[in-house]
Design goal:
single chain, 881 residues, alpha+beta, eleven-stranded antiparallel sheet, globular
Length: 881
């Protein structure tokens, strides 16, 4: 049979069309699979305390109503076998620390729900099958029904809970009952005055269902009203079959679900520490429910309304919240460890410093503990409340965000019934581990808390002591090239503005050396890839107008000759909006809706971190799963293009980025592990690292920390500021805060006193070109960097500081005392003394009046130093004000 040419051509065209489509689909599949993310499964951390065996109590009798399950030379662990409450006896001082404060049932403020919370080791919130938020508390949902088993583990105890009950709450009562049936079946049994009043208050003729009596919604909104109504219907013998029949008659559909959860909780003693471990791999459910927020040990160590003590919180440099300070109407302290979630947050309610250390402390009637998160720190939030708000106790605890969620406006109008709740599917499956250090000594305070955490970091290799005395570092940031937008006939185009060259930097060094400043750690910003807000750091294109490769090497060699160094700055997690060699589809972190993650500098007028009218001040958030590949490329390019042995990391120790979208998600905790691992790799190749921010996981790799939290934050619940972060790192890592000359408020005397009380080295940011060149650009924040205005002040600042601290370089800060005054930024000032391990004491008076302490007169707004050398008291030396 002959086939016409036309028919052949038609079939050929069809085959070509199909082939093109197939090739296109194949190319697309190949394209989306050519990008892989880092396999971080080996970074999931779990605890193994040893074999589990049947519960075997010991014979201790130190706590009434409890049995002993473990002991060390310092501590004894007791449990209540009926409620699983625990108590720890510190045998060095006899103090007993309870997980549930004794006498919570007699709390005059707490309602029944709050009492259930105080009796619970764990509370959590979850989304049920209908994406509704619900709460479970361990005591009313498990312990009360005896749904737990107890086991012994080496030097500890393990509890396995089934959380949930068949009690369906107010759903056991119909919302509509036929009027006639209501009268003879319900109202006729209300003979007590309280029962009659209950029915009159909450049951009314229905407006929408004629002939029916309806229960008001106010019943379900109150735990007390719910319990009273349930108790009444139980007394009259109402059955669930009657509820089902009434609902069917009225046409009301009631959705009832039973969400049960399995959970394990372990308590282990280790020397003078208690380890509390919650394995998330064993926190499971057979229902579609999704836990998203967890509260752990909320009332362990809580102080009552008659107790004396304080809570130490890592707000900024650190803060103290005194027991029963009367601030129960202020906002409680809440702060996420390592700062806000940059991917999910658009607005910042306050401009505060991120929490760098996952810690809090409690001093209660002369005894004290220091708690820190060992596993799960990136998921943690530090919380603290004072008595009088919802109960009569002062308490601090950690909570953990297991899943993030957001509402998508399906009809374009947010906040209406059409919103869709989207919940993060992939969650961290490791352990949540909190370690409680029990502090020895008489009335241990902030110093003992800092030493406890410091000792743990030394023990785990995170901190290494510095050498002995020596000149302290002067930190000088250099503003090199900045990316700006120029215009020709109204058409914008990208350009580069060079503010400082390496020749200028050498001239700065000449001036500083002549003024006695020798040990200079110089951070060079804006030296490659289009400037300070540079492109993705997978390759290096130096800006030759800033300086050549040899210029960098020569300056570095010069600085190292006097104990300093040159540290070119680089971002890895943030990259310019216009970046090149970067695939936004696969290399950008994405939120729950699949949108790419980005942020801008904080706009203090609108308090936004997302939107800024300068697009070249917008940053894309790099997917943490591609960070290791970027580091590979950068290290290779850095070695070949610079040959430098120093580097400044601007963001790896400052922020955490996660990616939540269903393709290649990386949760916040794994992002922390990936980031720490990459900093370690960089440190292996480049030994001299200056790291900005100071998140605790970068401690093992940092030669220097800048942008460290050395100042307080304005939190009205806080009573006093303390330099907790400096107390932890001093003597181990040299550090500095923000550059002095880019602060919102500047007072040279206050800046010097801050350095003297915290041990933070001076830090300044210089540019050679006048900053008027940056007008109408996103870099106007550098308006005060012109070196001529600051270099003399910087040399004087360093001279006074170094004269004292050159002998304290390797000494630890062992205590910090507040002698007088109030919280610095709430209308007052403090007189303090910083105590060092060699006996040196630095008295700082921030007030406007002289102050006498220990036989010394501290002048107003100045300091006094006293030291003990070879057993001889050296008279205090007071600098000229």
């Amino acid at each position: 049979m002959n086939i016409s040419r036309k028919t052949k051509q038609k079939w050929r065209n069809r085959l070509i069309f199909v082939a093109v489509i197939a090739i296109g689909i194949g190319a697309y599949v190949f394209y989306i699979n050519m990008f892989t993310i880092y396999d971080f499964s080996h970074l999931t951390r779990t605890q193994d305390f040893g074999p589990i065996r049947p519960f075997e109590p010991m014979g201790g009798t130190e706590v009434d109503g409890m049995v002993q399950v473990a002991e060390t030379p310092y501590l004894a662990l007791y449990v209540d076998t009926y409620t699983t409450a625990i108590a720890v006896v510190d045998r060095r001082n006899g103090f007993v620390w309870h997980s549930t404060p004794p006498g919570v049932d007699r709390d005059p403020i707490a309602n029944a729900m709050e009492v259930g919370t105080m009796r619970s080791h764990v509370s959590f919130r979850f989304f049920d099958e209908g994406r509704r938020r619900n709460t479970r508390r361990l005591f009313p949902s498990s312990k009360y029904y005896g749904q737990f088993e107890k086991f012994s583990i080496p030097n500890g105890v393990r509890f396995e809970y089934v959380i949930g009950s068949l009690d369906i709450g107010i759903a056991a009562i119909p919302t509509l009952i036929e009027e006639e049936h209501f009268q003879y079946r319900v109202a006729a049994h209300a003979v007590e005055r309280d029962d009659i009043r209950l029915l009159q208050q909450f049951w009314h003729p229905s407006r929408d269902h004629e002939g029916f009596r309806q229960m008001t919604a106010a019943v379900g909104d109150s735990r007390i009203h719910t319990e009273n109504m349930l108790n009444f219907f139980e007394r009259i013998g109402w059955t669930f079959e009657e509820t089902y029949a009434a609902n069917e008659l009225s046409g009301v559909e009631v959705e009832v679900s039973f969400d049960f959860f399995d959970m394990a909780l372990e308590f282990v003693l280790d020397g003078d520490r208690l380890i509390v471990n919650l394995p998330l791999s064993e926190f499971t459910t057979d229902t579609p429910a999704q836990p998203f927020y967890l509260y752990l040990m909320q009332f362990f160590g809580a102080g009552g309304s008659d107790d004396e003590g304080f809570m130490m919180v890592p707000s900024g440099s650190g803060g103290l919240i005194m027991f029963n300070n009367g601030k129960h109407r202020e906002d409680p302290f809440r702060s996420s460890v390592y700062g806000m979630d940059a991917l999910m947050n658009i607005l910042r309610p306050t401009v505060t410093q991120p929490v760098r250390l996952p810690v809090f402390g409690i001093q209660n009637n002369g005894a004290a503990i220091l708690a820190h998160v060992y596993n799960g720190a990136a998921l943690a939030t530090v919380n603290a409340e004072v008595a009088g708000r919802t109960n009569s106790y002062n308490n601090a605890w950690f909570s953990f965000t297991l899943r993030s969620s957001t509402n998508l406006a399906m009809d374009g109008i947010p906040g209406v019934a059409g919103d869709l709740t989207v919940v993060q599917e992939e969650v961290y499956s490791g352990d949540i581990t909190v370690i409680y250090h029990f502090l020895a000594g008489d009335n241990p305070g902030v110093g003992a808390m800092a030493q406890a955490y410091q000792g743990f970091l030394v023990e785990t290799g995170a901190l290494t002591p510095l050498d002995g005395p020596g000149d302290r570092s002067f930190y000088l940031d250099i503003l090199g090239a900045l990316d700006v937008r120029r215009h020709v006939l109204g058409v914008p185009y990208p350009s580069t503005e060079v503010m400082t060259t390496l020749d200028d930097a050498n001239r700065f060094v000449d001036i500083l050396n002549s003024g006695g400043v020798e040990t200079i750690q110089m951070q060079l910003h804006g030296w490659f890839n289009r400037g300070i807000n540079h492109d993705v750091a997978t390759n290096i294109r130096r800006i030759n107008s800033v300086g050549s490769r040899q210029d960098m090497l020569d300056l570095n060699q010069r600085l190292q000759g006097s104990g300093g160094g040159l540290h070119p700055a680089v971002n890895f997690q943030l990259t310019n909006w216009y970046t090149r060699r970067f695939n936004r589809t696969f290399e950008t972190a994405k939120d729950l809706a699949g949108y790419i993650g980005f942020m801008s500098r904080v706009n203090r007028q609108s308090l936004t971190v997302r939107f800024n009218h300068h697009l070249n001040d917008w940053f894309l958030l790099v997917h943490p799963g591609v960070l290791p590949f970027h580091v590979d490329d950068f290290l290779s390019a850095y070695e070949s293009r610079t040959g430098m042995d120093g580097l400044m990391l601007t963001d790896l120790g400052d922020i955490l980025v996660e990616s939540m979208y269903r393709r290649d998600p990386v949760d916040r905790q794994h992002s922390r592990h990936i980031t720490a691992e990459q900093v370690g790799r960089i440190n292996s190749a480049i030994p001299n690292l200056v790291i900005a921010g100071g998140n605790d996981f970068i401690f093992p790799y940092a030669s220097h920390i800048i942008d460290a939290p050395i100042e307080p934050d304005i939190q009205y619940i806080i009573d006093y500021e303390v330099p907790f972060f400096p107390m932890v790192v001093h003597g181990f890592i040299e550090f500095a805060g923000r550059p002095v000359n880019v602060r919102e408020h500047f007072n040279p005397r206050n800046v010097l006193l801050l350095s003297m009380s915290t041990g933070a080295s001076p830090r300044y940011l210089f540019s050679e070109a006048p900053t008027r060149n940056l007008q109408f650009s996103p870099h106007e924040r550098f308006y005060s960097t012109h070196y001529v205005n600051w270099i003399d002040l910087a040399m004087e600042h360093y001279r006074v500081f170094n004269d004292v601290y050159r002998n304290l370089r390797g000494e630890r800060i062992v205590d910090f005392e507040i002698l007088a005054g109030r919280y610095l930024y709430v209308g007052g000032a403090q007189v303090t003394v910083t105590v060092f391990s060699d006996g040196t004491r630095i008295y700082v008076n921030n007030t406007t009046q002289p102050f006498e302490a220990d036989g010394l007169i501290i002048p107003p707004e100045w300091f006094v130093v006293s030291a003990v050398e070879d057993g001889i008291f050296i008279p205090p030396v007071v600098g000229e004000g």
